[in-house]
Amino acid sequence: MQDSAYKINNLSEIDTELTEIKITGAREHNLKNINVNIPRDNFVVISGLSGSGKSSLAFDTLFAEGQRRYVECLSPYAKQFLGMMKKPDIDTIEGLSPAISIEQKSISHNPRSTVGTTTEIYDYIRLLFAKIGTQYCVDCDLPVVKRTLDQIISEIKSKYYDEEIVILAPLVKGRKGHYRELFETLMRQGFTRVRIDKRFTQLESDLKIDRYAIHDIELVIDKILVNDKSENRLYQSIELALDKAEGNVMISSTNTKDKNALTELYSINYSCPSCGISYEMPAPNNFSFNSPYGMCPQCQGLGSYLDFDINLLIPDNSISIYDGAIIPLGKVSTAWYWNLIKSFAQNHNINLKTPILKLSKEELDLLLYGQENYHNYDRNDSSEFYGIIDFLRRLSEIPTNKSQKQLIESCMKEQICSECEGSRLKKESLAIKIQNYNINDICTIDILDLLDLLKKIEKKISARQKQISNLIFKEINTRLDFLKDVGLSYISLNRSVRTLSGGESQRIRLASQIGSQLVGIMYVLDEPSIGLHQHDNNKLISSLKKLRDIGNTIIVVEHDKAMIELADYLIDIGPGAGIHGGEIILTGNPQDIINNKKKFFGYSKSLTAQYLTGDKIIEYSNNRRIGNGKTIEVIGAKGNNLKNVNLKLPLGTFICVTGMSGSGKSSLINDTLFPILSNHFNKNSIYSPLEYKKAIGIENIDKVIEIDQQPIGRTPRSNPATYTGIFTLIRDFYALLPESKIRAYKSGRFSFNVQGGRCEECQGAGIKKIEMNFLPDVYVTCDICNGKRYNNETLTVLYKNKSIADVLDMTVEEANEFFKDIPKLKKKISTLYEVGLGYIKLGQQAPTLSGGEAQRVKLATELSKISTGKTLYLLDEPTTGLHFEDVNLLLQLLDKLVEKGNTVLVIEHNLDVIKYADYIIDMGPEGGKFGGEIIAEGSPEEIIKSKKSLTGKYLKPELKSSLKK
Q1: Other CB atoms closer than 10 Å to residue 404's CB: what's the count?
Q2: Are 597 and 609 in contact (CB under 8 A)?
Q3: Kindly report the CA angle at 537 between 533 and 543, in degrees rounded to 5?
Q4: Which one of 91, 454, 532, 767 is least enclosed by Cβ atoms within 10 Å?
């Protein structure tokens, strides 16, 4: 009894421990040996200034350790595929669950990845069509029917009379395995031959094939000459084949002269009643555009392909081919292909010096597309000239350099596949229908319409079909409801994942996790509200709370005010960023903090809490700028869901484009306006704008600059100093020092990317990678240069007792003070400091910068340049990753750009940015097909008066609370 009582007490103690995640001594990155208790099964928000250590705690400590411990539990065999994660710098973590990270990064850059495949909804739809779909004949559009044995024999006699045929029984189609047992069974039954992947093979002992490859296996039943004498034997062989292959038989002609003699399938199951063509029984892989059994043969399942666009290839038809009308060819030269073109043109009496517009269509087509078997009189032989386009296409596949490939691809445009019309699938697969809808019809409509359509289909199908598909419909509808709940009702299942924003990608992964219904998991999310309109924010928060309610811990790195206020627990990190951050400032329930701020120790240090309570606000002035009187207009924009939109931008103002997710903001600005302007200012631009009629007023600006959140570099060698050009100035400065002149050191001596001044042991990396086989790779400091990157001779050149390596190790704040007497350097470095990046190091590796930090590095680079006052700056959600205080700083910087006469255009959902703008263009009224229109435009004060504008509804209370006095 005592033992039992002891055990019960112990269990209750364990249960108590598991109510919290206890972190002791966290020191990852800038975390300062922090201790924190996080309540389990709660919705927890981690907030703080950009660079304060939020991601270090959430992702690099909590998620990394949760993932590492899970992988530790697996076998050594599994570990070699998953890899090993480095243990974070921490003393202890207790009460940790298996962790799943959902970050802002795009899910996949693979053109084959779609919303349907990523969420696995498409897998269920494939199963649905395979089980209850009706096959229609692709030629006759009639439902296929079963054939009888007599009908099959009659057709074979008619088609192959007096021909020798091989009768095959298809046993395996498109499956992996070595099939040793199958071959042994067939041998015991007396069979001697099989056809494996179109090759005939003798059955023998221990015959097996590659178990990891996909195979087709047919059993050879008979080889027979079809005539009246062999009718009985033919009957028996066909009957045996049908029995062995579950009602299917394949006939292969031995007539090798006839190239069209292909293996034909006959079935007592499926065939067209009119033309007699047989079809395979539908299977899920018949609907997969990633499988050879389902993909369109022309586009290989991509739905489109890159091909040359004549308007891009020949932008100016008033000049001749000799003078460079065909952009990638350039002007005439002595190159071998020019000799071939000149010879071909001469043989066809085509004058290459004639302007393109004066050449006939036949002459231009001959040059572009060539002619087979033409006689080359210069060489006195017959050869083939496939044309300039074919030559350029082959050159793009094996280019001599990267710039050549980019130049050729700039003349190409994505074309919809003519065979499948963008559906990605074979015509046989598209001919399988449920209630007259094929699988492409299902996947091309938005989520909202799809839910309605599936309900209608489910009502109309037969009782037998309902019995088969009941569970499948349930799974599909559940997952579609999740997508709708996280504000993605406007997207379709066939939409490519590459076209999704970071916020959309993250919410799609979130919907998949809600659908998995896992319990006891720790989910770590990175700003899931990004790209989401305030109207949809509550739906997202409800979805996160659903995950919490089934027994999971939700940890969100977030700056959105509504999400912080509705969380169960807040952890605020700060007080500053970088070396000034890394401490726990404030913890507690957000509502308690708002209602009883005086009771919370650390409130005076917590900027987050002060913005929540309203003690600090981002102020704005209602004295809106009207601009310089000039405009840029885009007339008749129709790309994606845009409904013949006319865009008008007042120049010299701060413009904000707003609207629901999927309302057409990116289509109008990123995919139409920016490519138009980019192509105007850069003749080698690779961008193609979406459909529009005309653009007016481009001459009113002198350049366009897009500042996005893509990394400033993908290798550890790239850093803020190299990207902004500061490092070039530093190297030049060090080359001018007396010690450098004595030693004849040039600027290149101080580069860690080239030989000469760098440490050759680590080739200027400062670290060395040691591979540990099944253990994770270990990175150790180079033992020759001790992480300095340079050799000893280079490090002897000093300025104020600091070497070039010491400068790279400085924070922006330190460097700003260090180079205060060097005007050129001071100007560049101070711009980084002004954008709030004083805490990052000049030599910090680019991959370690967040999206928001990368964007501000780019912004600083532009700010440091001499402004002409006629620039248009385009920013897409610049508040990503920014705290309230960082947003305030960003707005002041953007304001400076506008004050110089420039135009700043931002796509935003953040109300602090929207209320600050001079001019708002609000799109909607909703997303997808319900969007694509400009529903309101004008100053914030005018927008709140619009009854159509949902943005105005949420903007109204913000305007009242933060007007400058």
Answers
A1: 13
A2: yes
A3: 140
A4: 91
DSSP string across 536-580: HHHHHHHHHHHHHHTT-EEEEE---HHHHHTSSEEEEEESSSGGG
Q: pLDDT tens digits, residue range 574-605?
A: 998 878 899 999 999 999 999 998 889 889 99
Q: Which residues pair with 938 in a beta bridge?
A: 920
- Identify the bridge partners of residue 223 per DSSP, sorted by sequence position: 166
Rounded to 10 degrees, what is the CA torsion of 630, 636, 639, 645?
A: 70
Contacts (Cβ under 8 Å, ≥6 apart) of 595: none
* DSSP notation for 144-164: -B---HHHHHHHHHHHHTT-E
Place of tokens 């700010």: 863
The tens digit of pLDDT for each residue in 41-76 reads: 999 999 998 888 998 999 999 999 988 888 888 877
The H or E element spanning position 35 is strand 34-39
Distance CA 492, CA 304 (A): 17
Rg (CA), the chain: 34
H or E, element range at 776? strand 775-781
In DSSP notation, 5-23 reads HHHHHHHHHHHHHTTEEEE
Euclidean distance between CA atoms 872 and 862, whole angstroms: 12
CA-CA-CA-CA torsion sign (476, 477, 479, 480): positive
Residue 199's φ and ψ, nearest 5 degrees, are: -120, 130
Q: Residue 195 and residue 193: Cα distance in Å, rounded?
A: 7
Give the pair of three-digit tokens for residue 244.
Answer: 């062995």
Long-range contacts of 249-252 (CB under 8 A, 24+ apart): 249/152, 249/167, 249/168, 249/169, 249/170, 249/221, 250/167, 250/168, 250/169, 250/170, 250/218, 251/156, 251/160, 251/165, 251/166, 251/167, 251/168, 252/165, 252/166, 252/168, 252/195
Residue 15 has pLDDT above 90, yes or no: no
Does residue 541 carry a pLDDT above 50? yes
Task: Name the burial class of residue 232, with classes exposed (0-12), middle (13-18) and buried (19+) by CB atoms within 10 angstroms of its CB.
Answer: exposed
Q: How far apart are CA 580 and CA 836, in angstroms?
A: 12
The two structure tokens encoding residue 167 = 């009768």
Q: In whole angstroms, what is the distance from residue 868 CA to residue 703 CA?
A: 9
* Residue 964 pLDDT class (50, 70, 90 cuts): low
Q: Tell which residue, 559, 543, 553, 496, has the closest CA to residue 521.
A: 553
Q: Please tell me the predicted confidence (pLDDT) of residue 1.
A: 38
Q: How far does Cα 315 stand from its chain's mean position?
A: 31
- CB distance 193 to 236 below 8 Å: no
The average pLDDT across 806-820 equals: 93
Please determine, for residue 447, whether its predicted confidence score (pLDDT) is greater than 80: yes
Task: Give residues with Cβ within 8 angstroms of 203, minimum separation 6.
Answer: 183, 186, 187, 191, 192, 193, 194
pLDDT at 435 over 60: yes
Please give the Cα distance from 904 to 913 (Å, whole number).
12
For the whole model, what pTM was predicted? Answer: 0.74
Residue 399 pLDDT > 80, yes or no? no
pLDDT score of 10 more than 60:
no
Residue among 678, 686, 723 nearest 703 (CA):
678
Distance (Å, whole) CA 296 – CA 276: 23
The stretch 447-463 carries a mean pLDDT of 93
pLDDT band at 258 (very low <50, low <70, confident <90, very high): low
Report residue 236 CA to chain centroid gap.
Answer: 57
Which token pair is 742?
């004595």
CA distance between the termini of the chain: 74
Residue-level length of the chain: 965
Token pair listed for 317? 């038809």
Would you place residue 90 in the very low, low, confident or very high pLDDT band (cuts 50, 70, 90)?
very high
The dihedral of CA 531, 533, 537, 540: what is its sign? negative
Q: In 3D, which of 825, 822, 815, 761 has the Cα closest to residue 791?
A: 761
pLDDT at 7 over 80: no
